[in-house]
Amino acid sequence: MKYSHPPEVRPYLISKTLVPENQETPIHFYNGDIVTEKLFYRRNHFSYPHFASSFYLLPIEGLVHTPKVFSLQEIYSLPSKTMKVVLECSGDKRKLFKPKVFGEQWGKGALSQGIWKGVTLSTLLQYTGLLDSAKEIVFEGYDNGIRPDSNQLFNFSRSLPIEKAIDPETIIAYEYNNHPIPFKHGFPLRLIVPGWYAMASVKWIKKIIVIDKEFKGPFQAVDYVYYPNKENDSGKFPVTTINVNSTIQYPLNMQLLHTGVYEINGIAWSGNGKIANVEISIDGGKSWDTCHLTTSSEKHSWVRWNYKWEALKEGEYTILSKAKDSNGNIQPSEPTWNRKGYGYNAIDRIKVKVE
């Protein structure tokens, strides 16, 4: 009698909604630094756009000296920049907020990382110039639809202040992991804004417009704004830089373990410098030990960490992880609650039982 090998078991995206498609990465089961196309989380406000990529052109217009329309071939021929960048949805971990907030109930997997290649926006702007009155640069995507709070048709559009837009790390990307950007992640051109939450990294760029005032589009002035008060808009401020954060990948929350020696592992990241260290607590925060960083700490990418745990005593354990970045930012014990549930970065917490 012949026995066949069991098929290889692979993780799949975790579906949140299908129209528009919103799916998160099974981050607990991912062991590499580079997330493949199939496991890259998907965040959309609308259905996927329709356009003819073979006739794709990128105009830069508005408050420039010389408006210009770039072909893809022109963009490909310009000096390129390649970076490993973590992209995190600003709603990552939203389901952990207490009290609960409305919105896509993301767990811990609205987060992915890979190698992006493209041309810096500042390189393109050398061909157009900027007028002295320029204040912000608007990036309009091809994706559009009717917002629930209005009967109007909107394209997904976001702006960057001039200084962030011309930062040498802000790129118009055309490759992901040495291949053309997958269509579902912005092919043929996607803005990549390292260090900022991923709503800034506009997909399927349709056009770039330079303006002399604050952009008031709904995905800038209504959404992706921190509202610290439940009843009114006082104290609101924009969502920008990724907060320092960490996630325990193994063990899993509420997992049953036998007594023995385990390697607790996870990832940590920050949009504000590099990860300096990660600490772990096995006793619910009463005491802390330093974890071992198993990958080099780089700007704009996550670091992997682990900790050897001798789980020799039966019982229930609350395991916590806490990251600190090179600018002194530390994960807080409690998240900063806000009405739309952005920027969750409280100390990560799981429970396990040893028996």
Automatic annotation (TrEMBL):
It comes from the Bacteria. One of its GO terms (molecular function) is molybdopterin cofactor binding. One of its GO terms (biological process) is sulfur compound metabolic process. Residues 239-354 form the Moybdenum cofactor oxidoreductase dimerisation domain. Keywords: Metal-binding, Molybdenum, Oxidoreductase. InterPro entries: Ig_E-set, MoCF_OxRdtse_dimer, Mopterin_OxRdtase_euk, OxRdtase_Mopterin-bd_dom, OxRdtase_Mopterin-bd_sf. This is Sulfite oxidase. Residues 45-218 form the Oxidoreductase molybdopterin-binding domain. Pfam families: Mo-co_dimer, Oxidored_molyb. Its cofactor is Mo-molybdopterin. The keyword Oxidoreductase applies. The keyword Lyase does not apply.
